[in-house]
Amino acid sequence: MLWRVTKKFQFAADRVIPDPLVLCLVLVLIVFIAAFLGTPSSFMEVLSFFYDGFFGGLFLFGFQMGLIILFAGTAAKAPLFARTVDRISKLPKSVSSALIFMLIFSAVTSWINWAFGLILTPILSTQLCRNIKGLHFPLMVASGYAMMIMVQPLSLSTPVVNLMASPGHFLEEITGVVPAAGTAFNPVGLIAYGIMALVTIVVVVLTRPPEDEIIGLESAPATMLNAAEKVSIPRKEMSPADKMNASKILGYVFPALLTVYVVWYFANNGINMTTNFIIFFFFTACAWLYHSPLGLMTAIAENIGSIPQVVVQFPLYGAIMGMMSSSGLSTIIVNWLLSISTAKTFPVLTYWSASLLNLFVPSQGGQWAIQGPIIEAAAQTLDVSYGLTAVCFMFGDEATNLLQPFYVIPALALLGMKLKAIWGYMAFLWVLWFVIASVCFYVLPESMGLLYQSGL
Known about the structure:
Blueprint: H1 2-16, H2 20-38, H3 43-54, H4 57-76, H5 79-89, H6 95-112, H7 114-131, H8 137-150, H9 159-164, H10 172-175, H11 187-206, H12 227-230, H13 240-245, H14 248-269, H15 275-290, H16 293-303, H17 308-327, H18 329-338, H19 346-358, H20 364-382, H21 386-399, H22 409-415, H23 420-447
């Protein structure tokens, strides 16, 4: 029954969902027209907002994500890494245990850092599909990604959690410093997450396609040849330049040096990893796995084709953010939704407004800079808990990442998949989440005594 339901969503996705770049361009035009017609901004002012946003915060982020995909994908295709993942993927012995194992793996790695879960879960899913017959690969990719985004409001590395717990943050005059106990570990958020995670796992495990409709990956894993195997010149005939290119000494001394910094970073920062450090971590792994400068660059060159979608689209989403924020369009949307709020409905409407705005402003930090001052000022007026408001915002911000392909683009690029292959499954999960979260944020805060500022 669940498979028939998901098939209806997937059928709509096959007919309606275009390439992610096309969807991004459609959003650009919608926001441009709305900003021009719905705000006092002139035509050229909106174009200027587009330009400024294009080269804004997501411009650098796009290249950072491109490097993460490049280095993580290169590491994943190394023989040693492939064999390690293969051993891990042999722990589950059935379809159900494989799905549960993958979903829990996604939640744990993504709680540590979202980029780890985003990249490592599809790699594990690929190997699980090769080892266990009966697994539907598109459903695994969609549900693994869903578990990644669902756990973010509970993660200590999430931008809103970090900001509100930091003295001197830009909303401190309104909210004060809100520790992680009031945001990441807020009881309302923990219960909502628990229900959503349990329902998601049960639904994914029970969604079974007929045997003739399963899309699996039975072929052997692709691996890179070691650099030494790619050097066709016999060692005794190599020139000094050839020997330096294939040097094992450089191939081990250089990554050893990088590893010293990796160890030092973890010793001083724990699991609080920045995007730059994740890039550095995967690059260090690549340097170890390919043994020589020639092997490293050959492997990277063979994987470079996986990043164009990311480096092109992320600046365009930055341009959308620029038009939304600079024109005042985002403020108009949020204020309209919050104008109909009462203290009891405020958490739900915060969730809805964050979900809506996330379709156009997919960066949580960027969206919080736009929406945070508005909703926390409203929370102050209504006497609603600041931490609870942030929790509802984060859940709403993450939910529509199932509909908005911004964060799934790197995983799709790594796997060489099309968005329409998984969008229907993600849309089905979004409906379930929307219903569960709406009920939780309407019922739980008041019933648990956590709705007002006197609560947690």
